[in-house]
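INFO  loader      accepted 1 record
INFO  loader      residues=112
INFO  predictor   begin
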Amino acid sequence: MKTKKYVLGLAAMAMIASVTFTANAQEKKTEVGKALQKTGKAVEKGAKSVGNKTAEVAVKGSAKVVDQTFKGKMAPDGSNVYIDGKNKKYYIDKKGAKVYLKASQIKTRPVN
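INFO  predictor   done
INFO  writer      dumping tokens
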């Protein structure tokens, strides 16, 4: 019985040691590794901004085709206000999401 516990304890310690060794081996401690990590974050940030802009353009394009533009009015951020089929007013934010507006949030666009 004691031998069985000893073997199980030894096996558990070996597994913990191998996991710790593997985790340490995956860390990037060199300058090249740190530079690659920063580059990866920059690429991820760039890809996210490109994706957001693509979504914004796609949603705005479909809104211009499907929904009406509320003439002479603007959203709190200065963009166009659209009216959907259920007479709800919305604008499209920088991430391409439709943000529905209350009547008090809609502003009159100044005439040039």
